[in-house]
Amino acid sequence: MINSQTLKGFRDFLPLEAKKRQFVIDTLKKVFESYGFEPLETPALEYEEILMGKYGEEGDKLMYRFEDNGKRKVALRYDQTVPLARVVAQYQNKLPMPFKRYQIQNVWRADNTQKGRYREFLQCDADIVGSSSPLADAEIIKLVFTIYQALNLDITIKINDRANLADLDKKYVSVIDKLEKIGESAVLSEMIEKGMTNEVAKKALKELQSKPQTESISQILTSLKQMGCDMSKIQYEPTLARGLDYYTGIIFETIAKGSTGSICSGGRYDKLVGIFAGRQIPAVGFGLGFDRTIEVLEEQNKIPSQPPAAKALVTVFSGELTEKSLEVTSLLREKDINTEIWLDDDAKMEKQLKYADKKQIPFVIIIGPDEAKNNTVTVKNLATREQKTIPIGQLIDLFKE
After folding, report:
1. Cα–Cα distance, 266 to 251 (Å, whole number)
2. Domain 312-395 -> CATH class
3. CA atoms of 73 and 382, how far apart (whole Å)
4. Strands in 209-354 per DSSP E
5. CA angle, corner 209, sides to 208 and 211, nearest 5?
6. Which tens digits make up the pLDDT trace of 63-113?
7. Minimal CA–CA distance to 81: which of 28, 40, 34, 133?
C-alpha cells in the first residue's frame, strides 16, 4: 500500500481552508486592480543561471536546483522578483512603462520547516518597473496600507533606506537583518564571528542606529502624507536591513498589531532588471507573506465564514423520477443558482440529507412520486429544519428571497 502523506514542508488544502485562501486572494486582486496593476504569471522552472546569485548566499543554499531530462540546469522559482526582471528584459519592447504588475503564484525554498515556514508557499507580489520617482515608492507603500485595510488588519510599516547600510559589507548586512529577531548582543556576537572586532562592531551598530532619515525617505514620507496615509503607522527604522542582495534604495517591512514578525516586505531594486536587460531599469515592489497574513487573520477572527459552493442539493429517487430531478437541476443552473444533484439513484433519503448537512448546503429539493405527479417540489431548509411544497414554477423565486 502506498504511504498517503505529503512531503515535509508541503501541504494540501481541503475545501474549507481553500475557500478561506480564495477569499484573501480575491480581496488582493480587487485592491491590486483598483490601483491599475495587472496580472502576470511566470513558469515554475527557470534556467538555474537566471536565479543563482541574486538572493545572496542564503538564498542560493535554499534554492531547489536540479538537472532535467535534457541535461539542462534548472531551478524552481525562489521568488517572483527575479522572474519579473527576466520578463521585463525579454519583453521590454512590448510592455508599457512604467509596468505595474501583480503576481500570485507558488514559490519553493528548501528551508527548515517550522510554524509558518514551508517549502512550498504562495507569494503575492506587486511591482512598479520603469520609474525612479519617489511617488512610485509611495504608491507601493500606500498599496500595502490599502490591502490590509481591506482585510481589516491594523498594520505598522517600518521603513529604511539601503543607503544607510552602504558602508557595511554584505555579510554584516545579513546579520543586522536579524536584529529584531535575535537581539543586539547576538547580532554583535555574529558580527564578531564574521570578522569585526568587538569595538568596531559596537561602533558600527551604534552609528547605524543614530542615522537620520535620508532625503529619499523624506520625499516618500511627504508623498504618503499627501496621499492621506496615517503617518503614525509609519516608523523610520535605520537598522532595518532586509537580507536580499538586490535592494538598492528604500526598504520596508509590515507588522500587524497584536502579532510579531513581518507579514509583507519589499523595497527598491534599481539594478536587478539591468542584469538581464543590459541597461538600468528602476523598480520598486513588495512580496506579501500570504501564509503569515492568513495566520494573523485567523488569530484575530478576521476571515468571514465562507458560503458553501452549492445553494441546493436536488435529491434523486430510483427509476423514472431521476428525469424530473435532472430537469429541476438544469432549471436552477440555467438561472445561475449553484446546484448539486445526488449521483446515486438507490441511496436512502437520510443519506442524501446527511450529505447536504455535512457540506452545509442550505436547501435540499426533494422530488418524490407525489411531487413528480403534481409538478411540485418539496424544499427543506436545513438550518431551520422547515420544509414546504411548492410548484416548480415558484422555485426560482425562493432563491431570490
Report:
1. 6
2. alpha beta
3. 56
4. 234-236, 250-256, 262-268, 283-289, 312-314, 339-341
5. 65
6. 999 999 999 999 999 999 999 999 999 999 999 999 999 999 999 999 888
7. 40
Give the integer Cα–Cα distance in Å for 91 and 101.
Answer: 14
Distance of CA 177 to the CA centre of its chain: 23
On whether the CB atoms of residues 284 and 140 are closer than 8 A, the answer is yes
Report the chain (401 residues): mean pLDDT per 10 consecutive residues: 90 95 97 98 96 85 94 95 94 95 96 83 96 97 98 96 84 79 84 84 83 94 96 93 83 93 93 90 95 94 93 89 93 96 90 95 94 94 93 89 65
Give the CA-trace dihedral at 388, 390, 395, 397, to 10 degrees: -90
**Which cell goes with 380?**
427543506
Report domain extents, the chain: 15-299, 312-395
d(CA 337, CA 363): 12
Its pTM stands at 0.88
Contact of 311 with 383, CB cutoff 8 Å: no
If one counts every other C-beta atom within 10 angstroms of the C-beta of residue 158, the result is 18
Pairing of strands 38-39, 250-256: unpaired
- Largest CA-CA distance found in the chain, in angstroms, rounded: 93
CA 36 – CA 141 distance, rounded (Å): 15
- What CATH number was assigned to the domain covering residues 15-299? 3.30.930.10
Which residue, chain included where needed, has cell 543614530? 210
For the four alpha carbons of 133, 136, 141 and 145, in that order, the dihedral sign comes to positive
